[in-house]
Amino acid sequence: MPEEKKLILVTNDDGYRSEGIKRLASALKKIGDVYVVAPDRERSAASHSLTLHRPLRVEEVGQRVYAVDGTPTDCVTIAIGSILPGRPDLVISGINKGSNLGEDTLYSGTVSAAMEGTILGIPSAAISLDARRDFDFKAAAAFAVKLGRRILKNTLPPETLLNVNIPNVKKIKGERVTKLGRRVFGEMIIEKTDPRGKKYYWLGGDMEKWEGGEDSDFHAVTGGFISITPLHLDLTNHSSIEEIKGWKF
Amino acid sequence: MPEEKKLILVTNDDGYRSEGIKRLASALKKIGDVYVVAPDRERSAASHSLTLHRPLRVEEVGQRVYAVDGTPTDCVTIAIGSILPGRPDLVISGINKGSNLGEDTLYSGTVSAAMEGTILGIPSAAISLDARRDFDFKAAAAFAVKLGRRILKNTLPPETLLNVNIPNVKKIKGERVTKLGRRVFGEMIIEKTDPRGKKYYWLGGDMEKWEGGEDSDFHAVTGGFISITPLHLDLTNHSSIEEIKGWKF
Predict the structure, then answer these.
(1) Which of A41, A103, B3, B243 is deepest in the core (most CB within 10 A)?
(2) In this predicted complex, what is the ipTM?
(3) H helix count then E strand count, chain B
(4) Which pTM value belongs to this model?
(5) Which domain holds residue A154?
């Protein structure tokens, strides 16, 4: 019995030419009509920004593939508002070249695209591959299909997206539902001097340590498991409202 | 009795030349030694991104005023890691020209600078002025001093920052500790055609409706109250972990 055709929006922050998005879109065709609406170039630094100060252009660069001269968040907004033939059943962002763990979720363009889908009321997920080179998208793309099928069947809890990180290993051990871990910051900045004697600075010198228990995303991925973290969008720290209410100004 | 001199980092996403940051820095001198480390130009679209693919330059543009060719997050990182004479006691970001309410907190460069301070373990707050024109920074700057004093005295709950929005009115009614409200999205996209017959798109056509109860940030600010929302950094939706664990792949 054939599965009912669903409408699926695929996006990313590496741009529509990225191998990760091509593999993702191709795999997801098994479970729906796939539209790719993605940045026209790498937008990894864009995080969760909306382009409001200039108009956006959309170019149809292939069959059901559109390039937008904006951020991942722009792409989701414009895809749902103007490009797609209807409201999508699913938004999947990725497959990102590199993991998005812990506080990365606050910076990540890949995750922010899925957040935007969630804000607009569409079940959404972000998928990232935990590697710096020798990316093997095969297992990640195969898992995206399983995940997409599962989300379409079960639906997600309200205002919740899934942040998925996949280990770049031949033999994946399984899936773990996790919490976000935390980076441990060491020396963040490397100071150098240019040939003209002027200083310059590189960020991110020593950012690769993590903390978090066995239920953390980092622990799962480094152990060879797929990490699935449910995220929500409400940054309110409800538990400290009463304390702050006691402050006198 | 003079107050103990504290070390205060001031930043923003509008750039070091912005009137909002000048007013803020000037006012905060009442309670500490103020260093301004801010982007060299407007970086409102930068959100929570770190510049990792190129080195950063820092220019001393005034007494204890430094311009960085990067994002607000870069500024906080480099200020704490390299520029300041010691670890700051307080990070205040702002005063932003325009409110940062509800989901804005996920996009905002102003808020992300305060998040970065929090990630690095410094008590931090973001201050935004709810106006689109005729910005009156006086009340906001005065409140920043009260707030800074209060944070230095009480300290903040762990891993918590304060997101403050100030109404742009002559007579502020007081302060409210609030939760983040939610945007209600209407028509997001305006499609137009250029003189050469090619389409282009403006985002944000109809984004100015909000929902949320009387305890929401939006409700407070539009009612003439200063809104203070405690935020945390953990996007994990802990309450849905068990549900997702029940999924079969």
Answers:
(1) A103
(2) 0.86
(3) 7, 13
(4) 0.87
(5) 6-181+216-245
